[in-house]
# Entry
Amino acid sequence: MDRIELAHLLGTTGRLAEVPAGPVVIEEADPECFRLAFARAVSGGGPVFLADPAWGARERAQLAALLEAPIPAPRPSGSRGWLMIPSGGTGGTLKFARHDEETIAAAVLGFSQAYGVRQINAVGVLPLHHVSGLMAWMRCVLTGGEYLPWDWKQLEAGRAPSQPGSGECFLSVVPTQLQRLLALPDMVAWLRRFRVIWVGGGPVWPELAEAAARAELPLALSYGMTETAAMVAGQRPGDFLAGQRDCGPALPHVRIGLNAEGLVEVAGGSVFRGYWPEWRDERSFATEDLGQLDERGRLRILGRRDAMIITGGKKVSPSEVEGALRATGEFSDVAVIGVPDAEWGQAVVAFYPAGKRSPDLIKIDHLLSSSLSAHMRPKRIVAVADWPRNAQGKVSRAALQRFVTSA
# Structure
């Protein structure tokens, strides 16, 4: 499949010459508008940039600077690496991972082989400018299935669609979305109708996993990122309800290993071509995620190396502290970061979205004293009025650091 064949699959019948060959930026919140704009842009000859409509001035300035960079000469094989998918915009410097029809097709084929489905149907509640939302749509397009976009706010309000297609259907959500749907009995019944519900975009804390298991939801924990065209490891149907809490084995199109530092490495056809405007020939990528592999090749993510807190010379995993805080039942959401501290180097600080009800700090202190070592307990617990979690369920730790600095 080449780029023009992909454009035809997307419903574009126009000729290549009818579309400008220069950079195209797609910034559409409405799924139908996005899909029309994307199909037309694919049939052109230039780079296509996906942009988040919710970006502020900081991200837009970074995008503008990247668009001014000289367009690299095409690779000998053609216009490979033409699709720019944003990565890191809310956590630091905005980057665009270069993908194309080949990396997308490799990811779709691996998914199809792993789960034994020739035609993939899906309900889409994640934004299409993000790799998870985009790939849910691409799986349907490339296998001749049906994709039904659905507004998350409607789903959260209890208005659910019927699953598309005549066969089994898939759904992808992030942990915070799953948490909210579990609180709605009608939504729980609707979720049970899917063949598989993929959960990714962040760690699933133990209490949420057990609540989903009690509800008998067909969950599958997964692992992937923008640089790998979304999912590269995933549980098989039934694994979650059988008690497994890892991310499952590698999908057929990739190989997953650990380097000497314990960081996850992914190799295969869906690995990105580099960050725009650079190019990389390597078909492998070393992530910043610390992991473990068991004897059956099932992957467990321990946390990000760059998120690790060093306080008083001791390492603290933010996800472990966040799990203990969630277990208290006092937080609807929570995030933990390391804040510069003159005495400890870094201090463990917890943040939560401000609301009508304040957490019971005495109760929290009592519960944490039995679940966390002293150096892991937050030195401060801070309310944040404008909670910086995006549609993919990821908290901007950079935004929390800026909040601390400006406070």
